[in-house]
Amino acid sequence: MALVLVFGAGLIAVGGYGNWRSGNAQRVERMIVIAREKGEPTTPEEMAEFHATSPAIDRTTRLWLEAMASAEPPGATSEDRENVAYVGYGLDDDPDSQEAMRRLKAEGVMTPEIYAASKAYLPKVERAIEVAHEARRSGTLARYPLDYEYVSPESIGARRALANTFALYLAVRRADGETDRFLDVHLSFLAFAESMQAEPGHVCQFARLALLGIAREQLLISLEKEELSADNLAELQRAWDAVDLSAALRLALLDEQMVALHYLPEELHLSLERDWRPCPEEDAYQAAKALRSVIDASDNLDAADAAIESAQAELDRAMEAPLASYRFVGWAETLRFIDANPEAVRRHWTEVDALRMILACERFRLERGDWPGRLEDLVPDYLDSLPPDRYDSGTIKYRREPGGIIVYAVGPDGSDDAGTLDPHVRATPTDVGVRLKLEPETSEEPVQE
């Protein structure tokens, strides 16, 4: 009799477990239906087809891919691509070369070693620059062929290669005193970053943000060296005015949602920390539900932050249950991965806003002899309106300093630190923005040693 009772209890437990999994599988299916009703992809195939195409987009895509291929060193390996800032330009992979390239890209400083190597190498990649100009003039988005199951490092390295080629081209031409084509180069660099604006997934959207950052740094070098006319600046300002990051967070999160809905319900551990989960469907549902709340709030970065905070609090409560560390691997990993996403978009958007203000201020200075006393002086002749401070309820802020100006927002701590910027340390309580410091005029007489 006891054996029968034990056997019956076992059957009930197995049946209950099966019903539990089945019920969670149905909840996942409902999340898939909701995503598809909103026009969002839920499989790798749907991710690949998400961004619409056309003959014009296909042509632009081919041109950008050709430009990236032309920018890479011949016979580049995966390791080369990771180090393409200096490997392939005839430089050694050593700390001195790395530091020299860092200064070239960040400050426009060209050492004799970098100049000699770059001057010899650049003719091999001038085709990349010309194709980039052609791609930009085509005036359409690109649709990059990405494998959404395994993101290829070559696709990331190829983007880095072309970005570094733009930076090297500017530096060599600057050293040679040939700046007449700099407007085209800056416009094409920006167009390269923005060619990815409609692509879904973290790789594309955060590569886009990174490229916008490099393009911004290169433009600031040209502004500091006064290499561009007021008309050039007006055209560049129009191009940067068109940068819209309002959909960047949503697009970045779509592949996380696809993973939650397509992979997590299966008995696959992917790159997660556990090979076994008692109910992968439950884990998938909870991860997808958290992502749904953030995606729905993604047009407002404050609301997205609040949605992540709320989802994290729910996860913390769930983690008190038995086997929680095994049950909710995907849920925990998803929240850990997306936690800083709204802040990353907010920071880059603030820096884009600040650069647009810097361009308007510099146009004002070139035409009127001095920078404006306040940003309001730019409206309406140089700006239609002032952008908001994306960290508080006011507008973006402005300070003048000897030989330069700063446009900034208060930063994550909400405190106005008078334009104190530290772009290399994200967690410090500093402001977020852009500084323009004009180089002092130097004598044309050669330095006597």
Give the tags.
single chain, 449 residues, mainly alpha, three-stranded antiparallel sheet, 16 helices, disordered N terminus, disordered C terminus
Structure description:
The chain is mainly α and 449 residues long. The protein contains 16 helices and three strands. It has helices at 2-37, 44-49, 55-71, 78-82, 95-107, 112-138, 153-175, 182-194, 202-224, 230-241, 248-262, 280-296, 301-318, 324-327, 329-338, 341-368, and strands spanning 397-401, 404-409, 432-437. Strands 1-2-3 form a three-stranded antiparallel β-sheet. A hairpin with a 2-residue loop joins β1 (397-401) and β2 (404-409). It is globular.
Instruction: Please compute the radius of gyration using only Cα atoms.
Output: 26 Å
Tally of helical segments: 16
**Structural class from helices and strands?**
mainly alpha
Cα distance spanning the termini: 105 Å
Describe the largest sheet. Answer: 3 strands, antiparallel
Percentage of residues assigned to helices: 55-70%
Q: Encode the helix/strand succession as letters.
A: HHHHHHHHHHHHHHHHEEE
Net shape: globular
Q: Hey, roughly how much beta strand do the residues contain? A: under 5%
Strand order of the largest sheet: 1-2-3
Q: What's the overall average pLDDT, rounded?
A: 84
Low-pLDDT regions: 3-15, 81-90, 442-449
**Total beta strands:** 3
